[in-house]
Amino acid sequence: MALRARALYDFRSENPGEISLREHEVLSLCSEQDIEGWLEGVNSRGDRGLFPASYVQVIRAPAAEPPPPARYANVPVGGFEPLPPPAAFKPAAQQPPPEPFQPPPAGYPFPPYGGSYQPSQGSDDDWDDDWDDSSTVADEPGALGSSYPDCEAAGGGASGRYRLSTRSEPSLGPRGAGHPPGHPHPPGGGGAAKSSATVSRNLNRFSTFVKSGGEAFVLGEASGFVKDGDKLCVVLGPRGPEWQENPYPFQCSIEDPTKQTKFKGMKSYIAYKLVPSHTGQQVHRRYKHFDWLYGRLAEKFPVISVPHLPEKQATGRFEEDFISKRRKGLAWWMDHMCSHPVLAQCDAFQHFLTCPSTDEKAWKQGKRKAEKDEMVGANFFLTISVPTGPGASLDLQEVESQVDGFKAFTKKMDESALQLNHTANEFARKQVTGFKKEYQKVGHSFKCLSQAFELDQQAFSAGLNQAIAFTAEAYDAIGDLFADQPRQDLDPVMDLLALYQGHLANFPDIIHVQKGALTKVKESKRHVEEGKMELQKAEGIQERCNIISFATLAEINHFHKIRVRDFKSQMQHFLQQQILFFQKVTQKLEEALHKYDSV
């Protein structure tokens, strides 16, 4: 006989090829084999199409059984066998209890966090086979199940390593013993109703909150080893949560971009000389090295704004203007990296700055280590240490208000930055072409006048002719000053705006992670009020949300601090250059004026 299944939940089709389901509806299956979590079948209305496998229970008996009572609508028919792993996503009210978290297998189709980032393709930034390494996955011991935030020294005598876990042990009540984590308890028995409710997962499994590991962390599914050196500390400063300052601050200059070749001149590239102040040892890096580092950092730090690199360019890579502009962009990028208390101390960044350019083996080892870093995704949040004790907890309502205010600020700043960038670019274009041309037209006109006056051979008019000719030359020179001036004042402003537009593009994702965590807290509180969840479990969710909130506010405060520093410095530089420019113009005009004193 034909395979049949009963719908456990309502499902509304949203895409072509899907069919809608009604709870308790009996369907005919075309096959019991699901395709990436979807089954094909025919509903009671005769529509044929796809629907989520986790929304139905296959009927093994020869005949359909009557629908279960509404009270136990979430209990699978035929006993308490675990449901298949969820492959589609339900509204919060219909979400079945999640299966125990398992790391995604190799080749899992989710794009890495920060999916908009693309590594270099083509041009001189291609990866070389002798530089790259295919090994990117570390084989480490499995996760341990200690309760967060307690730390236990890891076995094997590894000093300075701790195993942290946000997984909670299943409640072993009178009728709950032996049930796997996440499995619903049978109705009845002391406190079984409270432990049956879980916080739902996001419908969009490709959202930043999910891809970054924020959801898994908040729901208590993260566990791993944390070394002392991996800990990221948030402290309470005068402006609220702040990243703990780097005890050994440093800077790094980027100088002397030079064209180099390999493969007997068949391949050319530009190498930049980096000189970190804390080592004093110069190293050379290509743009592809910067690009690799950016990719690692963007994946590792979901609540930190990693500055964007200057844009790639397929043609004209060896032109002097492009090389100079890229070097300035990389210098701004490097300044922001060194100024960030977390990014500056990151192992991958330190390897990038200190590994000798000629030691290919050491570079590959450091690169491989960075790519095998386990403290990414949900485990990254285990590395964040936040203030504890009286007065250290955050008011989540106040946090939400602050984050909303910052969201409005970034939106307005982004609009203003775009407007200023457009205005500055247009003004620079006019100076380089229009203003220069107009001043030189004026100069040419004065020159024509002096040439006409030279037809008069009277001796007393010679001084006037020379003064007018000098005035013509002065206006020619002023035109050249206008054409050269944007390099001195407007271009640096636009370089800074480009860097901050990258930061502003990062913050929607950072805010989304915090908002996602806050939503889970609100949902858990509602379950507690309804008597569906134990208070201890809800408090664990709030505690983990607190960690994400501390980190988010620390990053916001760092952004404001560095923004004030940068724009103060840049506006001072802009006005100083404007004053110098007009002083040069005034000097030219005064020199021309003095020529008439002797006429």
TrEMBL record:
Residues 85-112 have a biased composition (Pro residues). GO terms for molecular function: phosphatidylinositol binding. Pfam families: BAR_3_WASP_bdg, PX, SH3_9. InterPro entries: AH/BAR_dom_sf, PX_dom, PX_dom_sf, SH3-like_dom_sf, SH3_domain, SNX18_PX, SNX18_SH3, Snx9_fam. Residues 85-197 are annotated as: Disordered. GO terms for cellular component: cytoplasmic vesicle membrane; plasma membrane. GO terms for biological process: cleavage furrow formation; endocytosis; endosomal transport; mitotic cell cycle; plasma membrane tubulation; protein transport. Residues 123-133 have a biased composition (Acidic residues). Residues 250-360 form the PX domain. It is a peripheral membrane protein. It is found in: Cytoplasmic vesicle membrane. Residues 1-61 form the SH3 domain. Keywords: Cell cycle, Cell division, Cytoplasmic vesicle, Endocytosis, Membrane, Mitosis, Protein transport, SH3 domain, Transport. Belongs to the sorting nexin family. This is SNX18 protein. It comes from Nicator chloris.
